[in-house]
Amino acid sequence: MPGPTNAETQPAVSVHELDKTFGQTRALDKLTMTVHTGEVHGFLGPNGAGKSTTIRVLLGLLKADAGRVSVLGGDPWRDAVALHRRLAYVPGDVSLWPNLTGGEAIDLFARLRGGFDRRRRDELCERFDLDPGKKGRTYSKGNRQKVAIIAALASDVELLVLDEPTAGLDPLMESVFAEHIREAKAAGTTVLLSSHTLAQVEALCDRISIIRQGRIVESGTLDELRHLTRTTVTAETARPASGVDALPGVHDLVVTNGKVQFDVDGEHLDTVIGHLHGLGIRSLVSQPPTLEQLFMRHYGEDLAAAGNGGS
Amino acid sequence: MATITAPAPAAARGGDRRPLAGVGALARFALRRDRIRIPAWIAGLTLGSVVNLVSFEDLYPTEADREAVAETMNTPAGLAMTGPAEYLRDYTAGAMMGHQLLGFTALLAALMSVLMVVRHTRAEEESGRAELVRATVVGRHAHMAAALGVVIVTNLVLAVVLAGALAGTGGTGVTATGSLLYGLAHAAVGIVFAGIAAVTVQITEHSRGASGMGLAAIAVAYALRAAGDIGEGGLSWLSPIGWAQATRVYVDDRWWPLLVAAAAAAALVTAGVLLSTRRDVGAGLRRPRQGRGYASVALGHPIGLAVRLHRGLLIGFAAALALLGTMYGSILSEVEDMLAGVEMLEEALAEMGGASIVESFVSMVMVVLAVIASVYVVLAALRPRAEESDGRAEPVLATAVSRARWLAGHVVVGMLGGVVVLAAGGLGLGLAGALALRDSAVLTDAMGAALAYAPALWLTGGLAVALFGLAPRLATLTWVVPVYGFVVSYLGGLLQFPEWMNNLSPFGHVPDLPAEELSVLPLLLLTAIAAGLALLGLTAFRQRDLQTDH
């Protein structure tokens, strides 16, 4: 094993201008993203945006049409087997063999990956409240998901690749899952977590990439993303708030009995607050955007387009 | 006032309490889903019957020929494989149909009915689709009623088509009335087994289990009639197939056994409906069994996984072939008497270079056994495709298992499994034959003849692997090989196909041991082509995307 000398500088996952097409459909379009070693990276996007396709390329299950992809320093297509020893994967929709029990499937995955901690596996079964003695065909979607999660968490790996792992889990199990992700992070494991549960990503992830139509449209820490986007400001001023709409970066201005409410781009916040100060601020509430607002900003136009198309 | 005259909510109105609400729509839907299957079953069964009738007429043109056959049939083994001895009194071509074929095609009609009922009831519940449908205005018993309605109508159509086709073909003793009874005897068996399936689908949660119990019932019914026909006949009356044969169609044309079948079907359907009210949607009457919580040591390797996934099918096929081989083997001593003096066969044997009747019979049986074994090989070789498209390959290939090792695991188990299935057939035939003829050489002859087909099976499997690698969506085309092999090898002699058609089938290149000499070269070539195809598939699979359906 080479020493961990370049672990600091080398990202766990690095994707540069990745293209992937299926027939006529362009699934990934010059997708570029980086997951740093040791971070929990949220991968956000609605169904069909290209999350699973990206992940399958990272696992060497799909071949990239163009672009550079590196996982744990290796080429996922060429070095698939060697890399798979060092990572664990939870698919978004887990299919199990109808005549194998959940326990058998867990052991199988973990052994094929190259050994696991039996005691930890039993602990996880208990924590996730899974009966490992039931046949695969009798499990609900949530229970099939648990089988894959337990098999992944029981292995000692450097990278966890999780594709919507909690779809189908109840809120109680989601919190058990979150706990284990924090534990993995504390142990130095890198986590790539694809999800469309925004609250989960907000709570767990250090950095976030938002994907839309096969491209990364936003990437960074939650704070950085917030900075890049708009803050909602509600203010009451001594003198009527005139001229706010003329300021740069102000959107969606509403004036109601002496109160103004508007969204302002991060870079113009200082100018706008300066202007309000000149009018005599009586009260001021400034709200950073929630992840949902960030997300909706990118997808809002899709929604609007869908709405217009319908009417 | 208004409160009194206000209409009751829809659910409280009498019309929507009907347990059969929506049955018409469901039945039409089932017919639409089965628009290919139903005609295929009916056409297949009818065609098979007509071909047999024609061949009986050709093989035994004179009354003396037919009497000779009747005489050789009158042995325990002969009766076990065919039907009750009453048919032998007046052994016309029609009587031969009732005696030799009716039991077999009626068994297929039963199979069709079981599979159809399970497909439209339990399989729908298992997939969760029934829940969606039941949440609409659909009555409690509508699913079952629609499924049974469709199956009963299918069986009646089969009866009419079969009757028309046989009466149209004609033959000694084949009357119009008899043909109608012949068709209805099939329908009776089909409908009784639809009733049996109506009960089995209540018992387990799983469609596979329900079909399995239905198939077991068919096997028991066949065994009961075989035992009954050897003995006093009492046991035959416990078997729906026995009732069909009790019509003595084309001999005495007795109609009343059909009433026994109708009564049994009615009782079974009633039982199924009553049982269905004692369980929830999606649940079975029997609780699922608990399995083991940890994997065995073997299940930690691609080969171990493949063995586990192929095991059930392999055991099933090996047992079926051993049984079939034993059945053929046990009549070897009668074959000699039965076929001696049949002109057409003697000519054919002379052409083949003076092999004995027993030897040539063993070679003929072996082709059939090999084609059935190839069905196993195709099923096994197509397993990787099912694993891939159903999404079970993906998590395995995301572990430290290379694509080559994963695919090789399935291929090795499938190919070796094919040899095991062949050997089981050869062993059954050889052992039973050796006992019947008191000649131990039959065992080695039969084993050698069986194993000679291994390269042809490998080629079939190799084709599946090549298609899987190069064009996974076309992999099911591999089925062409066993179907073509069956048509050419089984019907080829009868229908006088040209030689090139035989050469297109991998089975056509295997020497017909023990009737012919062993020639090694074609076997080596078949093996080399099989290896080449498998390697091609393996290489192509390593170069392509994994294609998952979700």
TrEMBL record, chain A:
**An annotated Gene Ontology molecular function:** ATP hydrolysis activity
Q: Which GO terms describe its biological process?
A: response to antibiotic
Record domain ABC transporter: where? 13-238
Which keywords annotate this record?
Answer: Antibiotic resistance, ATP-binding, Nucleotide-binding, Transport
- InterPro entries per the UniProt record, alphabetical: AAA+_ATPase, ABC_transporter-like_ATP-bd, ABC_transporter-like_CS, ABC_transporter_ATP-binding, DrrA1/2-like_C, P-loop_NTPase
* Compartment list: Cell membrane
Q: Which GO terms describe its cellular component?
A: plasma membrane
- The organism's place on the tree of life at top rank: Bacteria
- Which Gene3D superfamilies does this entry report, sorted A to Z? P-loop containing nucleotide triphosphate hydrolases
Bilayer topology reads: Peripheral membrane protein
Which family is this protein grouped under? Belongs to the ABC transporter superfamily.
This protein's name: ABC-2 type transport system ATP-binding protein
Organism of origin: Haloechinothrix alba
From TrEMBL, chain B:
Locate the transmembrane regions by residue number. 38-56, 101-121, 142-168, 180-201, 213-235, 255-277, 312-331, 361-382, 411-437, 449-470, 477-498, 518-541
Q: Which UniProt keywords apply?
A: Membrane, Transmembrane, Transmembrane helix
Say if the entry is tagged with keyword Transport: no
Query: What is the protein's given name?
Result: ABC-2 type transport system permease protein
Tell me what organism the protein belongs to.
Answer: Haloechinothrix alba
